[in-house]
User: Which sequence fits this backbone?
C-alpha cells in the first residue's frame, strides 16, 4: 500500500486475534507499530514478533490512556479493541451494561479525543474504527454491544465531516462472524457449538467464517494513500452475509 512506510500506527486491542493481524499487516508495509492492549503479555507478545512497541493501558480510563500515549506523534489510529457478553437484553441488569459501554464506546471516544487533535494540527491523519455488522443489521444476544458499535458508526461519520478539511480521514470497518475467542465463546463448546457453527457457515455465501487476516487488508487500505479520497464510509467484511446499503 502506498504511503504506509515510516508512518506510526497505534492499534488498540493489538494483542488480540484481529488486532495482531492488523499490526502484522502494517509492519509488513513498513509502518512503526504501537501495540496497545490492557493485557501486558498479549501486547508484548505481538510487539516482540513485529519489532514494535507495546503500550499497556485500559482505553476506557481517559487519564491512563493519556499517560500511555503521551506526546507520541500518531499518524494512524486503529480503534480495534472490543469485548462482548452474549445475553438477551431482557435478561441483563443495568450494572452489566457498564463494562460493555466502557470498552466499546467510551474507550474509542477517549482515543479519538487524545489523538485526533494532533492529526488535525499536522494536517494529516488516518483513523479506522472497527465496528461490527451487529451495528448495521442487529445481532441476537448482542443488544448493548450493537448499540455501542452503532454509536461508533454514527460518531465516525460525524467526525469525518469535522476533520475532512484538516487532512484527516475517518472510516469504519464492520466485520461479520470472524474466528476469534469472542465468536467461539458465543457458539459454545462441544456438539451443540459445532452445530451452531455449521449453521452459520451455511448462511454465509462464501461458506466460511472470516479470519483475522481478512480484516487487516481493508484496514491498511483505508489508512493508505490509495484511500486518500475516502472518508465517512462503512465497509462490511462478512463474506456476503450482510449486504445492507
Assistant:
Amino acid at each position: 500500500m502506498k504511503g504506509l512506510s515510516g508512518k506510526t500506527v497505534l492499534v488498540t486491542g493489538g494483542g488480540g486475534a484481529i488486532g495482531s493481524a492488523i499490526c502484522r499487516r502494517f509492519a509488513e508495509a513498513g509502518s512503526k507499530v504501537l501495540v496497545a492492549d490492557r493485557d501486558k503479555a498479549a501486547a508484548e507478545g505481538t510487539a516482540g514478533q513485529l519489532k514494535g512497541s507495546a503500550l499497556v493501558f485500559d482505553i476506557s480510563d481517559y487519564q491512563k490512556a493519556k499517560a500511555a500515549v503521551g506526546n507520541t506523534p500518531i499518524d494512524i489510529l486503529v480503534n480495534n479493541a472490543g469485548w462482548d457478553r452474549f445475553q438477551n437484553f431482557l435478561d441483563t441488569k443495568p450494572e452489566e451494561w457498564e463494562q460493555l459501554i466502557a470498552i466499546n464506546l467510551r474507550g474509542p471516544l477517549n482515543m479519538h479525543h487524545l489523538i485526533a487533535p494532533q492529526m488535525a494540527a499536522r494536517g494529516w491523519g488516518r483513523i479506522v474504527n472497527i465496528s461490527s455488522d451487529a451495528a448495521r443489521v442487529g445481532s441476537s444476544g448482542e443488544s448493548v454491544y450493537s448499540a455501542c458499535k452503532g454509536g461508533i458508526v454514527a460518531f465516525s461519520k460525524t467526525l469525518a465531516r469535522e476533520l475532512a478539511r484538516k487532512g484527516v480521514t475517518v472510516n469504519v470497518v464492520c466485520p461479520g462472524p470472524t474466528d476469534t475467542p469472542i465468536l467461539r465463546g458465543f457458539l459454545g463448546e462441544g456438539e451443540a457449538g459445532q452445530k451452531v457453527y455449521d449453521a452459520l457457515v451455511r448462511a454465509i455465501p462464501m461458506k466460511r467464517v472470516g479470519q483475522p487476516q481478512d480484516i487487516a487488508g481493508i484496514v491498511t487500505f483505508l489508512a493508505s494513500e490509495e484511500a486518500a479520497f475516502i472518508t465517512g464510509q462503512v465497509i462490511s467484511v462478512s463474506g456476503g452475509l450482510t449486504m445492507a446499503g
